[in-house]
């Protein structure tokens, strides 16, 4: 099978098929024959496209061969943060070299909207611009370059309106994209009054650009009879189909969206690919010619939304040991000019403020500040990191105030071990799978945390300028879309007469390896070599009404759907084999590419060929909907998550207190991927998320000037981590822990939760700064901890009157 990854070989003889019985403990855990049971899951199979990636043969949207007559589009952008457009003169744009057409809002045949939940997101600004970079018109030309040059030639007469640029300003003006939300449990006020100690403060945590390597792109190709095919880089083909149909005034059945893979999405292509898809489709539809719209990096960063920055005001009461007895937080995010996914992001922030800690009496408020900036959106973690970091900040301070090691205070506040109580989240979900104690104990021991702490103290006593810091932070992350109905998925599995297998599912491949995991699931279910299985591009005409590949659920949901489809085919093959060779269908075994029935061993391909002749259906659809979920948005209570994934990391840094430069010298991470479907991919996800999260909290700084223009819109001014920022000593391991929930082969999601692991880096930097003041002053460190922010915090600690050198 050309192009397939090398097979994960099946050495062992037939063994009971694993995991087909729901909920029951794994069948393959039962006493097995001498050899290990055959399995296709749980193996470190290489990424299905690894060879193609390395050879430059993996096709991204811009690599698809262009159809004859293809035109290229570019967007004309607003130069004002908030203004009425009094007049717009596009004559120079029209006259520019190679230009075929120019379109504004009034040319859109259907609805001028691409908002995912609330319809407040115009494709093209209509009279009112709400941020610098907002698309105002589409120009179509014979080349990408001509379109881009022409897009700069518009003359727009603006009447400027007052602009709100920060979340704090939005709060002061009560300017919100949605009504503020609040989650209360217990009586925080009374608990505060009883609390012997309190910490109170403010924190600002910046946003983050997704910085996918492949930018936003859509290629729209008109089809016969009003049809439209859109090839685009998106995590959410069904939503693109929906938006394009609306923009064109068509039905969904007119529009097909396809995505073979993305060069990264990271949440930035969940809703924000819609604008590009819609704009390309509008132009293609009006011209009845193929139109490609590819954003260059600056436009991409100016136009699209990012991770929400958050501002927090917090107050926490605690006892003499550091145990939290009351917590209050008021968060406001920078939503940007429209709602986009800001509501669910804020909800996830509220539901992750607890992180791994039991909070008896809490009052959590969150608001989505409406600002005249890009409309912020999903980014790996989806508000979870923003909720949890505030709590970690507080715990850090409590420990410092009490002169205790922060790890001890963290442990004291963990959700209870099994049977201990203290196991209900503020939103009312009972935690039944808590492993944070065991996991942190294992990491603490394996990383020599206590010895490192002692060594660092000795180092800092002798080192006046370079200061080392250490931190261990835990993660608990809820898995499932917090919008319940999105937790569904579908798949199609085709077994061809030659025994090869083609799988299509609703998930999209963005580099995370979802296709590889699903190939393993299907191979496992049918007991065949991985090399038999191939996954094709995600297409809305194959599996309908899919959810975004997001919320870390890609493999969880689509894996179950694909398993369901493969299972049905296996049942039919088993029934056929039993008819053919005798015995009980339940006794037929599929493993190692061989079907075992009543003492016969039949190669899988041979059985398939025979089954075809006997007119057995060799393909099937599959479906999955996560059970047990519920959510009441009014009270903010329910069971929003299917299960929790856990993890923890230790970081050791050295900070130059004269320049603010720092280095991560060692990082140890332990992550609970359940019974990992593919440990190689999962470790890669943990490593990638760790470094990406470290970038968010350290070097990646978004800055807008006083006129609301994003000034950090290219890699020259926006610093993502490079290879040299990765720690030389980086120890990532998976925690052995079968999922309590009946997830796909008892695995756990891995996409987003590890992004919280580098909290340890941020707090290690804060610890190093804190040593300047003998750990008696809380460094007012904001995120990102850029060199400037570090120096500011060092200066503040020094100004607080603490010794400059802890001698
Ligand atoms: N890994 C790579 N290589 N590229 C990506 O864009 N996106 C992340 C994560 N890992 C991403 C990634 C995000 S935001 C999510 S939600 C998950 O992958 C989605 O994939 P999964 O649910 O299939 O794990
Ligand atoms: N909820 C969530 C969502 O938890 N993660 C997501 O990515 C998401 N996307 C859309 C709506 N709700
Ligand atoms: Mo990931 S932020 O849920 O796309």
From TrEMBL:
<keyword id="KW-0560">Oxidoreductase</keyword>
<protein>
    <submittedName>
        <fullName>Xanthine dehydrogenase molybdopterin binding subunit</fullName>
        <ecNumber>1.17.1.4</ecNumber>
    </submittedName>
</protein>
<dbReference type="InterPro" id="IPR036856">
    <property type="entry name" value="Ald_Oxase/Xan_DH_a/b_sf"/>
</dbReference>
<dbReference type="Pfam" id="PF02738">
    <property type="entry name" value="MoCoBD_1"/>
</dbReference>
<dbReference type="GO" id="GO:0005506">
    <property type="term" value="F:iron ion binding"/>
</dbReference>
<dbReference type="InterPro" id="IPR046867">
    <property type="entry name" value="AldOxase/xan_DH_MoCoBD2"/>
</dbReference>
<feature type="region of interest" description="Disordered">
    <location>
        <begin position="1"/>
        <end position="42"/>
    </location>
</feature>
<dbReference type="InterPro" id="IPR016208">
    <property type="entry name" value="Ald_Oxase/xanthine_DH-like"/>
</dbReference>
<keyword id="KW-0408">Iron</keyword>
<keyword id="KW-0001">2Fe-2S</keyword>
<dbReference type="InterPro" id="IPR014309">
    <property type="entry name" value="Xanthine_DH_Mopterin-bd_su"/>
</dbReference>
<comment type="similarity">
    <text>Belongs to the xanthine dehydrogenase family.</text>
</comment>
<dbReference type="GO" id="GO:0030151">
    <property type="term" value="F:molybdenum ion binding"/>
</dbReference>
<dbReference type="GO" id="GO:0004854">
    <property type="term" value="F:xanthine dehydrogenase activity"/>
</dbReference>
<dbReference type="InterPro" id="IPR008274">
    <property type="entry name" value="AldOxase/xan_DH_MoCoBD1"/>
</dbReference>
<dbReference type="InterPro" id="IPR037165">
    <property type="entry name" value="AldOxase/xan_DH_Mopterin-bd_sf"/>
</dbReference>
<dbReference type="Pfam" id="PF01315">
    <property type="entry name" value="Ald_Xan_dh_C"/>
</dbReference>
<feature type="domain" description="Aldehyde oxidase/xanthine dehydrogenase a/b hammerhead">
    <location>
        <begin position="55"/>
        <end position="162"/>
    </location>
</feature>
<keyword id="KW-0411">Iron-sulfur</keyword>
<dbReference type="GO" id="GO:0051537">
    <property type="term" value="F:2 iron, 2 sulfur cluster binding"/>
</dbReference>
<dbReference type="Pfam" id="PF20256">
    <property type="entry name" value="MoCoBD_2"/>
</dbReference>
<dbReference type="InterPro" id="IPR000674">
    <property type="entry name" value="Ald_Oxase/Xan_DH_a/b"/>
</dbReference>
<keyword id="KW-0479">Metal-binding</keyword>
């Amino acid at each position: 099978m050309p192009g397939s990854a090398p097979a994960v070989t099946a050495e062992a003889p037939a063994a009971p098929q694993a995991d087909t019985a729901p909920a029951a403990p794994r069948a393959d855990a039962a006493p097995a024959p001498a050899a290990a049971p055959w399995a296709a899951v749980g193996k470190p199979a290489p990424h299905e496209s690894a060879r193609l990636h390395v050879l430059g043969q993996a096709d991204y949207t811009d690599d698809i061969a262009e159809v004859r007559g293809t035109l290229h589009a570019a967007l004309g952008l607003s130069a004002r943060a908030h203004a009425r457009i009094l007049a717009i003169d596009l004559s120079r744009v029209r006259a520019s070299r190679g230009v075929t057409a120019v379109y504004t809002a009034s040319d859109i045949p259907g609805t001028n909207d691409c908002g995912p939940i609330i319809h407040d997101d115009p494709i093209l600004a209509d009279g009112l611009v709400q941020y610098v970079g907002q698309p105002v018109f589409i120009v179509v030309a014979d080349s990408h370059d001509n379109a881009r040059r022409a897009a700069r030639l518009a003359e727009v007469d603006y009447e400027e309106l007052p602009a709100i640029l920060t979340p704090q300003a939005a709060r002061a003006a009560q300017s919100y994209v949605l009504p503020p939300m609040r989650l209360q449990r217990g009586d925080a006020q009374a608990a505060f009054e009883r609390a012997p100690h309190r910490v109170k403060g403010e924190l600002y945590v910046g946003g983050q650009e997704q910085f996918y390597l492949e930018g936003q792109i859509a290629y729209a190709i008109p089809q016969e009879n009003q049809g439209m095919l859109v090839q685009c880089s998106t995590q959410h083909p069904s939503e693109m189909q929906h938006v394009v149909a609306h923009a064109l005034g068509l039905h969904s059945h007119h529009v097909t969206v396809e995505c073979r893979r993305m060069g990264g999405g990271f949440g930035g292509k969940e809703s924000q690919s819609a604008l590009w898809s819609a704009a390309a489709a509008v132009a293609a539809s009006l011209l009845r010619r193929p139109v490609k719209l590819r954003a260059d990096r600056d436009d991409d960063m100016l136009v699209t939304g990012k991770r929400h920055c958050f501002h927090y005001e917090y107050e926490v009461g605690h006892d003499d040991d550091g145990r939290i007895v009351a917590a209050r937080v008021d968060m406001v995010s920078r939503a940007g000019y429209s709602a986009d996914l800001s509501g669910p992001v804020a909800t996830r922030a509220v539901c992750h403020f607890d992180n791994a800690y039991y909070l008896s009496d809490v009052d959590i408020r969150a608001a989505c500040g409406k600002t005249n900036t890009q409309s912020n959106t999903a980014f790996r973690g989806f508000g979870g990191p923003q909720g949890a970091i505030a709590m970690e900040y507080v715990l850090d301070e409590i420990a410092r105030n009490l002169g205790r090691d922060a790890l001890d205070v963290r442990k004291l506040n963990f959700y209870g071990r099994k049977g201990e109580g203290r196991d209900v989240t503020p939103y009312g979900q009972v935690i039944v799978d808590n492993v944070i104690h065991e996991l942190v104990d294992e990491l603490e021991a394996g990383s020599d945390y206590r010895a490192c702490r002692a060594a660092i103290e000795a180092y800092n006593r002798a080192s006046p300028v370079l200061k080392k810091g250490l931190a261990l932070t835990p993660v608990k992350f809820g898995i499932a879309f917090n919008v319940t109905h999105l937790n569904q998925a579908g798949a199609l599995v085709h077994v061809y007469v030659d025994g090869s297998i083609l799988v299509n599912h609703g998930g999209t491949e963005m580099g995370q390896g979802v296709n590889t995991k699903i190939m393993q699931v299907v191979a496992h279910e049918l007991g065949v070599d991985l090399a038999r299985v191939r996954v094709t591009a995600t297409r809305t005409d194959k599996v309908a009404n899919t959810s975004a590949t997001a919320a870390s659920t890609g493999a969880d949901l689509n894996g179950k759907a694909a398993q369901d489809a493969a299972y049905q085919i296996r049942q039919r093959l088993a029934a056929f084999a039993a008819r053919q060779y005798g015995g009980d269908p339940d006794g037929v075994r599929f493993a190692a590419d061989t079907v075992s029935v009543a003492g016969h061993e039949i190669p899988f391909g041979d059985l398939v060929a025979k089954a075809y002749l006997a007119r057995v259906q060799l393909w099937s659809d599959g479906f999955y909907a996560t059970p047990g979920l519920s959510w009441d948005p009014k009270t903010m209570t329910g069971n929003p998550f299917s299960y929790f994934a856990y993890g923890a990391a230790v970081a050791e840094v050295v900070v130059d207190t004269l320049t603010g430069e720092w280095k991560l010298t060692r990082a140890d991470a332990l992550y609970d991927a359940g019974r990992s479907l593919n440990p190689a991919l999962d470790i890669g996800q943990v490593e990638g998320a760790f470094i990406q999260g470290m970038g968010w909290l350290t070097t990646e700084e978004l800055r807008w000037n006083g006129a609301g223009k994003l000034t950090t819109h290219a890699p020259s001014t926006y610093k993502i981590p490079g290879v040299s920022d990765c720690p030389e000593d980086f120890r990532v391991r998976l925690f052995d822990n079968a999922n309590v929930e009946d997830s796909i082969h008892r695995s756990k999601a891995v996409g987003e939760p590890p992004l919280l692991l580098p909290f340890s880096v941020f707090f290690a930097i804060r610890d190093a700064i804190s040593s300047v003041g003998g750990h008696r002053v809380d460094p007012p460190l904001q995120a990102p901890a850029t060199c400037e922010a570090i120096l500011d915090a060092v200066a503040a600690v020094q100004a607080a009157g603490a010794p400059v050198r802890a001698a």
